[in-house]
Amino acid sequence: YEMKKYEMKKQAATRKIAGVLAVILVLAGAAGCASAKLSDDFDKETVETAAKEVVDQLNTGDYAAIEEAFNATMTIAMQGQKLQDTLQPILDKLGEFEEISNCEVVGSKAQDTKEDLAVALINVKYAEGKVRYTISFDKDMKLAGLFIKSKQCVAALNVTDISSTRKRNKAW
User: What is the 3-state secondary structure of the chain?
Assistant: First the structure.
């Protein structure tokens, strides 16, 4: 009986997380990206450093720092959402951080505002799997999007459509 009760609670928690991710994925579909050339408004090394810092903050559980880096659109989109509640279960399944194996920086445009964005595509190895982070920044280097793709799951915390990066995501 206790085992069945535990399994029911586990399933309920999984459904809750899936519901939150579904809402976030709907938000992700609200806008779109296009382009691959990084705008002259961005410095490639600065974007790469900032994106790796976000990965480090995720790995150390510094969600407050990530939320402070949100741009206005992300802040509005994530109102009422708990970043840690959404991401920590995913990171727990992946296990201990091992290394960043690759980082590519490309340009993009937000479909709704046509604003130039810098997008870092980062491949990260964990003890239990690999992840591709897609981390977007606006011209003020504020966090405009965070997308996590692994074999186990996908979590999008952004308001930019990820369709233009899907082809690149298949390569990892």
Answer: CHHHHHHHHHHHHHHHHHHHHHHHHHHHCCCCCCCCCCCCCCCHHHHHHHHHHHHHHHHHCCHHHHHHCECHHHHHHCCCCCHHHHHHHHHHHHCCEEEEEEEEEEEEECCCCCCEEEEEEEEEEECCEEEEEEEEECCCCCEEEEEEEECCCEEEEECCCCHHHHHHHCCC
Task: Report the alpha-carbon distance of residue 170 to residue 105 in Å, rounded.
Answer: 16
Sort 4 into a burial class: Cβ within 10 Å, 0-12 / 13-18 / 19+. exposed
Q: Where is mean pLDDT largest: 30-34, 86-90, 155-159?
A: 86-90
pLDDT of 80 reads: 66
Q: 160 or 11: which carries more pLDDT confidence?
A: 11
Residues facing 125 on adjacent strands: 99, 130
134 close to 140: Cβ distance less than 8 angstroms: no
- Residue 7: pLDDT band with limits 50, 70, 90: low
Average pLDDT rounded to a whole number, residues 162-167: 38
pTM metric for this prediction:
0.70
